Request: fold
Amino acid sequence: MVFKYKSIDASGISKDGTIDAINMEIAISALQKRGLIVASISPEDSGFSLFNNISFFDRVSNKDVVILSRQMATLFEAQVSALRVFQLLASQSDNPALRKILGQVVDDLQAGSPIADALAKHPKVFTPFYVNMVKSGEESGKLNESFAYLADYLDRTYEITSKVKGALVYPAFVICTFVGVMALMFTVVIPKIGAIIKDSGQVMPIYTRIVIGISDFLVSYGIFLLLALIVLGFFFWRYLRTPAGKYSMDEAKVTTPYVKDLYKKLYLSRIADNMNTMLLSGIPVVRGLDLTASVVDNEVYKTILLKAVEEVKGGSSVSDALGKYEEIPGMFVQMIKIGEETGQLGNILKTLSNFYRREVTTAIDSIVSLIEPAMIVLLALGVGFLLASVLIPIYNLSASI
Reply:
């Protein structure tokens, strides 16, 4: 909540401004810690704005966090103070939502809060993994290294995630376009041609009757079908937001033929990269596994990692704990075991991360190269079947005249 205030500093100079806090008491306390005497304070009337009330327009993207982390790494490397770093970034950010969050971080730092605690108040932007990396840097006095590790890690994660999403854009666009064109054909073009064929009185082939039947159904009941699909889509979306729905979807990703290998490699790369980055920052293995579970973004692997955490706490090695699950390849387990035995677990995890990242890139390139010709063939067959269903009877009709 934003409060407007009027205050006087130690020099007797009047200062007006705004402060974001949970309630008025916390706002007053934060201002007093800055050495200000509060003359008046009241909630700011932000007014009504359609876009301000839609969360979609008030978000911070992964790209924003990647750029922010790189900027922080550079500024801390230049020995700029933490407070000044966040003040500079807050003033220079082009994203209103990020600017607001950084302003709140600045307020918390001025009130004496550690950086990690200030960032932890914004979990939608700064994940537990991110916060713990920063906390480790604060405790070890190596904030510049922690932010450098974070920037490199987020760069790699953003690159591979963007590549996966980008690979799906083309087929999604083609499919949507094809469905739209087919819907127009069945509801606008086919009914007119079908009327001509019916009036001719000739015996229609089975495939022509099927096409005309589908067309008649869509013309008569298409609106109800559309409404039913919207309702089903809404309930499916609601189901996916439940724990059971999310687990089912994540399980489908790693069990569906043709795509399971890609997703498995993606999550294994993420696990190895997370663990390597945290070990470099001095975070213990058990804590690293726990944090990796929270950011792996797949409920199946999250469950595996959380179970592994309990086993490692009970005295088991990481390789033995992970080796019980078929979702973790034998090569991955053996490499970790070698790292544990040689004391080079960090380097082994880095090697695994690089290997699986290359595998994901190769798999995406292969899928994209196969998708294009496959979709062209399927679309050609669909359009060809539709045209043949209506043109052959018309050709027979013209030939009989």
